[in-house]
Amino acid sequence: MNTTEFTARPTEYSGVVFRSKCEAIFARNLDLRKFSQWEYEPFGGSEWAPDFWAILPKKTGRGFFSVFIEYKPASVTDTYKTELRERFLKLIPEPNPHAMFLCCGSPYNSTRESFMLGENGWKDIEDRLRILRCLEEAKTFRFDLK
């Protein structure tokens, strides 16, 4: 089988250097989706930490909620989701006031999946929240211009 290997290219956006262009595009997506605030790698030097912490406005227009987001530019396996759940709960034990999301989707194809961690594991939420809805627009941003 012939596979292509990609190397992540550090990319700057909004004064932050991301490990890959896909992560920078995802951050631009958060801005376009009107997340009022976000932070990349919020736990810094931790062994593992979610890629983003963000504040998401509630649909009612009144108030906000805090979310941790792990972003992957491709679909993930159920085994990965199980391991990720364990990592989230080890880092931020329950009960905690933050929602925990897993967002999967490349800016370069139409596959989009978003999950929220609940009591019974990961629940598909992409149809409801459409967190990744602005990836197509976000990828048109000229990251090479400052």
Q: What integer value in Å does the Rg equal?
A: 15 Å
Contiguous helical run count: 4
The main sheet comes to: 6 strands, mixed
User: Roughly how many Å apart are the termini?
Assistant: 41 Å
Major sheet: arrangement of strands: 3-4-5-6-7-8
- Give the helix level as a range of percent: 10-25%
CATH class identity: Alpha Beta
Poorly predicted runs of 5 or more residues: none
Helix-strand makeup class: alpha+beta
Q: Report the CATH topology name.
A: Trna Endonuclease, Chain: A, domain 1
What's the SSE pattern? EEHEEEHEEEHH
Q: Beta fraction of the residues?
A: 25-35%
Give the mean pLDDT: 85
Let me know the number of strands.
8
What CATH architecture would you give? Answer: 3-Layer(aba) Sandwich
Q: What is the 3D form?
A: globular
Our count of domains comes out at 1
Quick synopsis:
With 146 residues, this protein is of the alpha+beta class. It has helices at 21-32, 78-91, 126-129, 135-138; strands spanning 11-13, 16-18, 37-40, 52-57, 64-72, 99-104, 113-118, 121-124.
